[in-house]
Amino acid sequence: MRILLSAVGTRGDVQPLLALALELRALGHLARLCIPPNFLDWARDLEFEARPLGISMRPGPIPNPMPDLITDQFETLMEASQDCQLILGAGTHQYAARSIAQIRDIPCLQAVYAPQSFQDRAVWNARSLERVNANRRRLGLADISDVLDHILDDDPWLAADPTLCPPGRGAWILDDQSPLAPELEAFLEQGPPPVYLGFGSMPVPSETSAPLMAAARAHGRRLILAQGWAGLMPADPAADCFSCGDVNQQRLFPRLAAVVHHGGAGTTTTAARAGVPQVLVPMFSDQFYWGERVRALGLGVSTSLDHLPEALGESLGRNVQPIPHTGCRLRELLKRSGIS
User: Fold this and answer.
1) pTM of the prediction?
2) Which CATH superfamily is domain 2-173+327-336 in?
């Protein structure tokens, strides 16, 4: 079966889809991907057919003029879905997948990485309902009345670890074998386990690095400062601080004293699998949910930036057991969806 996989967003949205594509290949299916342009080389290196969807999701200037990303989804998925027998959309910003599946008369499955009960439907409808319906009318389809209902349908797959997020059906984890940079390896070997500080794709102010570093140093800890999209840099470079860009979190996290992060689904899961205490500083969306789950499971705490020093002190030294890895059970999910 040829399956069209669509993801919109940052690395945390695309990396799980690549893991799913590999699982599909292992089961004998063919996966074609529609993903943001900056991830195309990654997918093609894994020998997948991949087509650009939307704009590059990375720091930099915003395209001027900004394209209508909903119309772009409709046009891209319509072309990419030729000769496909199934469309699977990952993440809630899949405005076109179900409509294109209707036109093609093929099944459509939807996956999310966190529960969606917190979503404000009025906001979703205000910003996207008319544009979705305009594209549906162009294709001869009837209007919908609610964007989230249309995207999620009755039974979306919850691609999340069942320990962290019941009733998750297994996280889609791409095994990362890339080594750590020699300079980072040397830093790790030069002293006790450091604290990792990073907010990924969050647009935090550059001055955020100062309180982050102060929080770790207040407890006598060395630190690794992840630059992220905000380009965080050490406020006062010193031997106790290592600054890095993208890094293999699967290899790094088990060697740390604690992980301070924004609460993205992928980072939370990786830290939980590593058995390292977490301090979440959630900012929006599902990050608050993951903060509550980490707290409830005794894996760490959730706090604000103002209270980070106290929260970090509460987490350091905490005995955290790695959560067991649960695969995505793809064969079972496909069978439940009527797909062999």
Assistant:
1) 0.93
2) Glycogen Phosphorylase B; (3.40.50.2000)
